[in-house]
Amino acid sequence: MDFTLSEERRMLADTAARFLADRYDIATRHRAAAAPEGFDRKLWAEMADLGLIGALVPPEAGGFGGAGEDVALVFEHLGRALVVEPFLASGILGLWPLVRAGESDLVEAVIAGRTLVALAHGEPESRYAVHEVATRANEGDGWRLTGRKSVVINGDSADLLVVSARVSGDLDAPEGLALFLVDPAAPGVTRRGYGTVEGGRAAEITLDSAPARPLGEPGQAFALIEEAIGRGTLALAAEAVGLMEVCKDTTLDYLKTRKQFGKPLGAFQALQHRMVEMVLEIEQARSAVMLAAGTHQADRLTRERNVAAAKHLTGRVGRRVAEEAIQLHGGIAMTWEYPMSHYAKRLVMLDHLLGDTDHHLDRFIRLGREGGAA
Amino acid sequence: MELTYTPEEQEFRTEARAFIAENLPPALAAKVKGGKRLSKADYELWHARLQTRNWLAWHWPVEYGGPGWTPVQKHIFDEEMIAAGAPRIIPFGVNMLGPVLIRFGTPEQKAHWLPRILSGEDWWCQGYSEPGSGSDLASLRTRAVRHGGHYIVNGQKTWTTLGHHANMMFCLVRTDPDAKPQEGISFLLIDMTSPGIEVRPIVTLDGEHEVNEVFLTDVRVPVENLVGEENKGWTCAKYLLGFERTGIAGVAFSKAAFSHLKRVARETRKDGRPLADDPLFAARMARLEIDLMAMDIFNLRMIAAAAQGHAPGPEASLLKIKGTEVRQEASDLIRRALGPYAMPFLPEALDEGWNGEPVGPGYANPAASQYFNLRKSSIYGGSNEIQKNIYAKLALGL
Ligand SMILES: Cc1cc2nc3c(=O)[nH]c(=O)nc-3n(C[C@H](O)[C@H](O)[C@H](O)COP(=O)(O)OP(=O)(O)OC[C@H]3O[C@@H](n4cnc5c(N)ncnc54)[C@H](O)[C@@H]3O)c2cc1C
Q: What are the CA-CA distances from residue B185 to residues A191, B4, B177, B325 (Å)?
């Protein structure tokens, strides 16, 4: 057993931490979130130059990382700084299908931060189900897609959309799925962008016979979609740990400095115990993320089950940490001006991305049955 | 044991329901139910409608303009009002200051201020908390020094709910800095339009403006505006907190939230079926419903005790804790039920008259921000930790 980071990863972690500490304070974050695209293109390019996107891609595809540990490391740091730049959309969800389809020119442009890609998969009725796709793909004079995609993260500013659609099969069949590249400026594509409650951006996308180019063999895309979403789920679980650490550290500092009844709040034993419970739960969540990260290259069932476990636990613990952090602060953490309240918001809302605690609990049980676990 | 309402009480419920149906404008009810922002005028309108029947000031004796309701009647009216989507009664004048004046005010103060609360002429806010004094309220430092016929007040209040609507503030100030903390505090009525008062908004984590900071610099307050004796303000303050705590369990709000949750879970789909049929989500809803049913009876037990003339005891603290937890849980489940559609947030859609196209179901937009907003309920009105301290000390003798 060795839980320490390799030399390369330590360097990556230092690079990310230093850049974010120097360049990405909360005011920068709020400014970026309030910009029309919901992030700062210039900072995004700088982060790309630093290799933060490349770290999410394996060397054989033009990156220099790409393992589960790399994904977890980068996203924990993004969480610590509450970064709103589109790492999930363009660093994982949209990028991974391109990597796997061998689209090396596109991959290079995305890693360099020149092209922004987003995955349009979820639909108005599909909730978090990976296999439920109603959008249809028809082949005639080229491929054309018709359907609706909902809450597409960073879908409003993406230069390129990776869209899931069905070439055959029932609404919820894993068979018959395909992934396509769609130019958002093409005729038949309508985008409605909006802000999300914790400061991000997303879009509703309507496709009406929109021209599309298939990625890989149409009909066989389920495994790839599941892989991309599993990777994104790992990323979010790791981001949650970063957010939790900040909530915990901020709360601890506050308990040591805020005085009521003539003593620091931290002198009250009732609050000491709450603080210890918070730390304990975070260690559990972190451990689940390490397990998922370390087994991300394993067989499908192991990989997906561990990812489901990590997302379930970070969802459960995340809500508790966010609520406790606010409560232990009192009124001050109810304000917009207090940075930690935005961490708490993001932490709670992560449960609405790529599957909530119940979805992943359910998935954990099903995957266990598939693998013959009791 | 008798768990049903008497025929008279049931008749009162029918009467209450009819009154509300007749007086609550449907557009206003739609705003409340849709989680839209309410204006000052919305609250004023509902207060005025209630006052047409003397049904505004529930806790006031009849001779001052109260309805003379039993605790059970108040409970029934509250349930009907919230279920119908009426705005909440803004408590500061009616439920907080009113009872204090009735108990501690001079005849002149009562004659002057009470009718103005009923008529809506004055909008009151509560100036208790300060940046350095939240749970430890008795440490407050806003200073009032008497000069002839006036107090000169200097200091800062914070978290002042709807202070931007208020023209009056009841305020705790320190008049004797040398006495023990609780013994040097006085209860003053301050005109918010006085020179030296500045109200600054505090934006809460949901992006809304509900609370404020109030800065007081050499504000002159006539000595007639002292309620009770000088340096005895803590007695008024504590008396008032008792009234603040009874309403705060919000059982009626939790019931309304639960029926909304049922609708959301019926209309939302998971794996092609209503979310309400999902075993995991159904279990979450059932647990909440069980808590709510039990809390309803818990609340009614307190009401029955009050009806027999018992002053609310330390159990009020228990009810406040459980009540806020249940209400927070309901808002958590509503947010959760919406799945990905809890994410989109269009702040402009909370405005009256917005008729754009919602993202996802129309009720999705306010759900997450309401969940965040409700975090306040376990912090204010005496935080849930402070309630536990109170109960441990007063009821358990620890
Ligand atoms: C939205 C909102 C509206 C409000 N409206 C008003 C208003 O209109 N007028 C007004 O005067 N005030 C108002 N308040 C203020 C409210 O009453 C205070 O926030 C509350 O008293 C807690 O004080 P604090 O925020 O300073 O937290 P603190 O007192 O600093 O407490 C921080 C944390 O420590 C805990 N704690 C403190 N002491 C102890 C102890 N001895 N043992 C264990 N735990 C302890 C608290 O429970 C809390 O979790 C409002 C607050 C909010 C958030």
A: 60, 45, 9, 32
